[in-house]
């Protein structure tokens, strides 16, 4: 399905009527700098919808976008941002975990990883928590453009083995590979 409209609605830091209004939600999660905002921008084919910043850890709210007037995309703060001070770190993780696990939002989850780096410890922790709750997860292996050509097939195969049991989509916000496939998976 094509995306015809995408509108930023608001950033929220906790309970909000919008999250409970019955519109289906898709959550974009991943480590800071994995490319959550860039993936959303690529999906909706807009340069600047989700502010993509080269400075990690900048997004501290749940940023809600309304897509095709029928689905919310929710851009979450990145987890595992070690350089934030302890209070900020805890606030961000509490917000992410509350949204994903302790409330009734039940979003479909897009887990964004760096295709070149692969799964990190914090990705594994998040994936295990999602699996435990039986959440539907689509894994986006972003930054696929950074994998050396000679390593590409091998690296994708390794990633599929690592994330066994989940749909994994090789993706690049730069070359736009995977955009169509992810749209299909979500809408
Ligand atoms: N080479 C490459 N760089 C990317 C890609 N996606 C994002 N980036 C870069 O990675 C950095 C973090 O992206 P951003 O979307 O802000 O990540 P977020 O913190 O997860 O929202 C930025 O400098 C982006 O330009 C990609 O597919 N390929
Ligand atoms: Mg971001």
| CATH architecture designation | 3-Layer(aba) Sandwich
Largest beta-sheet characterization:
7 strands, mixed
**Number of separate strands:** 7
The shape, in one word, is globular
- Determine the N-to-C terminus distance: 6 Å
Q: Which consecutive residue ranges, at least 5 long each, have pLDDT under 50? A: none
Fraction of residues in helices?
Answer: 25-40%
CATH H level, superfamily name = P-loop containing nucleotide triphosphate hydrolases
Report on this structure.
The protein has 187 residues and is of the alpha/beta class. It has one domain (6-186): P-loop containing nucleotide triphosphate hydrolases (Rossmann fold), CATH 3.40.50.300. Helices cover 30% and strands 22% of the residues. The protein is built from 5 helices and 7 strands. Helix 4 (152-162) links the parallel strand 6 and strand 7. The longest helix has 16 residues, at 86-101. Bound molecules: guanosine-5'-diphosphate (GDP) and magnesium ion (MG). The site of guanosine-5'-diphosphate has 20 residues, from helix 1.
What's a quick, concise take on this entry?
It is built from five helices and seven strands; from the N terminus they run ββαββαβαβαβα. By secondary structure, it is α/β, with parallel strands linked by helices.
Considering the chains and any ligands shown, give keywords for the structure.
187 residues, alpha/beta, Rossmann fold, 7-stranded mixed β-sheet, binds guanosine-5'-diphosphate, binds magnesium ion
